[in-house]
Amino acid sequence: MGNPTRDRQAVEHSVSIVHLVKASLQDIEWLYPDTPLERIAAHWLDLDTQFAVLTDSPTCSGPALEA
Questions:
Q1: pLDDT in tens, 7-38
Q2: Within 13 Å of residue 9, how many CA atoms lie on the same side as its CB?
Q3: Which residue of 17, 27, 56, 65 sits 20 to 30 Å from the alpha carbon of 36, by its own alpha carbon?
Q4: Cβ 67 vs Cβ 45: under 8 Å
Q5: How far is the C-alpha of 49 from the C-alpha of 57, rounded, in Å?
Q6: Where are the domains of the chain?
Q7: Which long-range contacts (CB under 8 A, 24 or more apart) does 57-64 make?
Q8: Phi and psi, residue 49, nearest 5°
Q9: Is 20 strand, coil or helix?
Q10: Beta bridge partners of 55
Q11: Contact 36/27 with Cβ under 8 angstroms?
């Protein structure tokens, strides 16, 4: 496992330069412990991604937020 703080910076850089980001609940909980999903998605939208998909099941269904 890497370092959540360092890896969060890398993820946020990527989020800031793409139009669509998808992440699993497992990855999000590791990167942003104890942070509500809505807050993370809103933060990513503030970084200029256009669409954030957060998945919470093997079928990849989950909340999607659009800028």
A1: 999 999 999 999 999 999 999 999 999 999 89
A2: 4
A3: 17
A4: yes
A5: 23
A6: 4-66
A7: 60/22, 62/25, 63/37, 63/38
A8: -70, 155
A9: strand
A10: 24
A11: no
Enter the DSSP assignment of 59.
T
Prediction pTM value: 0.78
Nearest to 49 by CA among 33, 64, 67, 31: 67
Tell me, what amino acid is at 33?
P
- Please give the Cα distance from 42 to 1 (Å, whole number): 26
Q: What does 29-58 look like in DSSP terms, one character per residue?
A: HHHSTT--HHHHHHHHHHTT-SEEEEE-ST
CA 2, 25, 61, 44 torsion-angle sign: negative
User: Which tokens sit at 39?
Assistant: 């807050």
